[in-house]
Amino acid sequence: MIFLVFPVLVKTNVDISLLIKEVIADFEPEIKGREIEWQISELPSITADKALLRLVIINLLSNALKFTRQKEKAKIEIGSIQKDPSETIFYIRDNGVGFDMKYVDKLFMVFQRLHHIEDFEGTGIGLANVRRIISRHGGKTWAEGEIDHGATFFFSLPNS
Questions:
Q1: Strand segments (E) across 34-111
Q2: Whole-angstrom distance, CA of residue 94 vs CA of residue 160
Q3: 75: which strand partners?
Q4: Pick from 40, 53, 41: which is nearest to 14 by CA?
Q5: First vs last Cα of the chain: how many Å apart?
Q6: What is the dihedral of CA 23, 53, 61, 96, to 10 degrees?
Q7: Closest C-alpha to 99, from 149, 155, 154
Q8: What are phi and psi of 3, to 5 degrees?
Q9: Which domains does the chain have, with CATH numbers?
Q10: What is the C-alpha to C-alpha distance for residues 132 and 81, in angstroms, rounded to an integer?
Q11: What is the Cα–Cα distance from 20 to 105, expressed in whole angstroms?
């Protein structure tokens, strides 16, 4: 198995809204010419390792962009939920190809793919790394999807 080796967490106050805007700006050359409707809610700041959280956002947005590529108009929604005062839940939802929920347990495993590599490029380690990073922060990851109706990826981070 291949995993990235992550150094000790360097936790600081991270403005998630700003981080997401920076990552989207980095994707601009790749998404030029695509019609994408971004719905970004006001997001709270969180205490986390900014560099590792950036990798989480890059991987999740990359997947949303990849799996909406076949849509005439992609819709990507980013938001947060505060159900419990001890943690914040963040989500990235898209209107892409989705997935069958009976395979949800495979999503965050290394080299487990739910789509053919000919249809969607990738290494098969992005979501495994997302899970590992969020787990190192004391959080959880999960997903919901439906074939041809998009997917939503969630991660929680403890409020410090």
A1: 36-40, 45-49, 74-84, 87-94
A2: 29
A3: 37
A4: 53
A5: 32
A6: -160
A7: 149
A8: -130, 145
A9: 36-158 (3.30.565.10)
A10: 21
A11: 26
Q: What global pTM score does this model have?
A: 0.86
* Cα→Cα distances 6→68, 71, 103, Å: 30, 35, 28
Q: What sections of the chain are H helices per DSSP?
A: 16-31, 50-67, 126-136
How are the residues of the chain apportioned to helix, strand and coil, as percentages rounded to the nearest 5? 30, 30, 40
Coil, strand or helix at 127: helix
Contacts of residue 135, defined as CB under 8 A and 6 or more positions apart, other chains included, come to 141
pLDDT classification of 88: cutoffs 50, 70, 90: very high
Read off the amino acid at residue 17.
S
Q: Angle at CA 130, nearest 5°, toward 31 and 21?
A: 40
Model confidence at 99, pLDDT cuts 50, 70, 90, reads: confident
Cβ neighbours for 15, distance < 8 A, ≥ 6 positions apart:
45
Share of the chain above pLDDT 90, in %: 67
- The residue type of 37 is E
Report the C-alpha dihedral over residues 135, 139, 140, 141, rounded to 10 degrees.
-80
